[in-house]
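Moderator note: this is an archived Q&A kept for reference. The question asked for a predicted structure of one protein chain; the sequence and the answer are reproduced below.
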Amino acid sequence: MAQLATAIIAGYEVHTRLLAAVQPGHWQRGFQSAGTFGTCGAATAAARLLGLTTDQIRHALGISGCLMPISNSDNEFLGYSAKPIHGGQFVYVIKGWATFEYEGVGVRTLRAGDCMNQRPMIAHREIEYSDDYEVLEIVAPADFKTRIVDAPVDAAAD
């Protein structure tokens, strides 16, 4: 029973931290957290119960990120018969910190416990990070390619 409770708590923790990074706009744009980040929470709970390795957990969360649907209202109003999938990169900092610069956003430092949703194709760069930096990234689609780009426009003007 303790294993099940621990798995459920871990699932809720991942779900809630991802959701906290995008609220309140997530709900205001028609998204429901159980239908979006619930996939990551369920994958976390299942991984905990199954005793998956770190690499297996990474794959499970990557798959769950690919299963995140778009807004329920889009499904109804646009006539989809299945839920299309979000693209993007969800980042959760496990240990340490890292500083990034994002086009149109500026410089942001992510610390242990922080999470964020990085939209697809945003120009960004890593400025610095701590020696103990450890991060979990969930990317959808899973076959993205990293491209070398110029510094964000804001930085180029400095």
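Archived answer notes: The helical segments are 2-20, 25-28, 38-50, 54-66, 72-77, 153-157.
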